Amino acid sequence: MRWKIVLHTIGALTLCVGLTMLFPLAFSLYYQDAGIMPLLKSFGFTCISGIAMFLIFRDREGNKGLSHREGMAIVALGWVIAGFFGSLPFYFGDIFTNYVDCFFESLSGFTTTGASVMMDIEKNAKGILFWRSLTHWLGGMGIIVLSLAILPFLGVGGMQLYKAEVPGPVPDKLKPRIKDTAMVLWKVYLLFSAIEAVLLMLGGMDFFDSLCHTFGTLATGGFSTKNSSVAYFQSAYIDYVITFFMLVAAVNFSLHYQMIKGRPLLLWKDPEFRFFGVITLVIMVIITVSVYSATNYESIEESFRYTSFQVASIISTTGYATADYEIWPAVAQGLLLFCMFLGGCAGSTSGGMKHLRIMLLLKQAYQEVFRIIHPRSVNRVKLGKTVVKPKTMNDILGFFVLWLALFVICGLVVSATGVDVVSSFAASLACIGNIGPGIGSVGPTENYAHIPELGKWALIFCMLLGRLEIYTVIVICVPEFWRK
Question: What is the pTM of this model?
């Protein structure tokens, strides 16, 4: 492990994080709010630290390229460092009474989890709230992918960083050069962000709110500038716009790129997209009928509006809310809980297990049943017309087991701090799935402020596990990883 090249690269990432603080600082200066000094201090401290690390650990051996282990170390440690420096505006602004809450809010933003410990959101400075939402947008497509797009000196060994960070079992390399792939993904991300922001402003949001809610939507994060989340705006138009873009963000961004390039049929030909679309639509219909039958809303359209929003919010792991789904019928709550396990598609900004993994595991289970009936048959799991390699299936099975095991362990740790069992496991599921709100005392009308510090640290670890797809974080905890 060449620590110089690892810390040198992390220094560059830290500088990127520091420079992005200029945007919320500009909003604070415009509104002349209390965020000016906290953001200015954070900007200076972060940039100086990044430049210092970049220069002190500069090493010519870095030109030889990164090893697989060094790439994984950079990604895992880079996200922790981003969470640390991202917490400084909250710390210097005295937003919370302890540092744990500052780090929790920051890493929840960067990992696009959206689990918040902020009690009264609307009383905070605009610049601080913009930074809070901006951490979503940066973390959505990924700090490492952003750096690969704009920093040429990270082009060497870029594939190691890309594989370690990009969500999904098989990262899509759209261009021969990894820097070009990262740039393509960010262009698509920027395009959708611009379109949504304009549409939200047409619906009555001001420029500030439209940007913040766009960041939370496209990154599937869920931080809002309002205490009551999107419900504050009481607008069917805004609800439908955000619902649409939450579903867009839950789809593989390489498919969006192909669609923009004039190949829209590839979207429907993709097996995972069809699987995702059918499941989402079926769940929306069932919950709409259930909620309407229970007379929660006056019309079928109103029922569909609220249920489609919540289904899109949870299955995309965004976490926005327009209704308290804990008062809905039990079957509706059960299906929403099921959505928390699913997540979005591979290659999207969503968290969760991903539909691709679920689909392939179901196919594998069917093959096992088929072999019992026909012992001499030779069948392979296929994705479309492509045979899935046994190694890929083993990786998916390993991920599935680890995901469930870590979810249970975290739930037990949180419950050991005195939180009730339902809320503990709901919080664990919401954080490892990067969803945000859960059920119980961490439901859509509550937050995570009441959870003791030990429980918050466990949930912070879960957020990181979920965002980096388990393996990247777990592997650096294994002693063999650090040995020659």
Answer: 0.90
Q: What CA–CA distances, in Å, run from 283 to 161, 274, 276, 288, 327?
A: 36, 14, 11, 8, 18
Token pair 């990992």 in the structure block, residue: 111
CB atoms closer than 10 angstroms to residue 188: 20
b/e per residue 327-353 (b: at least 16 CB within 10 A) = ebeeebbebbeebbbbbbbbbbbbbbb
- For 209-262, the pLDDT digits (tens) are 999 999 999 999 989 999 999 999 999 999 999 999 999 999 988 888 888 888
Distance in angstroms (rounded) separating the CA atoms of residues 453 and 249: 32
Give the number of other CB atoms < 10 A from CB of residue 474.
15
Max Cα-Cα span within the chain: 75
Contact (Cβ atoms closer than 8 angstroms) between residue 411 and residue 424:
yes
CB 361 within 8 A of CB 396: yes
Structure tokens at 130: 């913009």
Closest listed residue to residue 151, CA positions, set 300, 361, 10: 10
Round to whole Å and give the CA distance between 227 and 359: 37
Distance CA 435, CA 313 (A): 8
Round to whole Å and give the CA distance between 358 and 364: 10
- The structure tokens 């430049």 sit at 51
Q: CB–CB of 223/114 below 8 Å?
A: yes
Of 59, 75, 62, nearest in space to 464 by CA: 75
Q: Quick one: DSSP state of residue 152?
A: G
What percent of the chain is modeled with pLDDT above 70?
Answer: 91
Backbone angles phi, psi at 382, to 5 degrees: -120, 145
pLDDT mean across residues, the chain: 87
The DSSP H or E segment spanning 244 is: helix 236-249
- Cβ 348 vs Cβ 317: under 8 Å: no
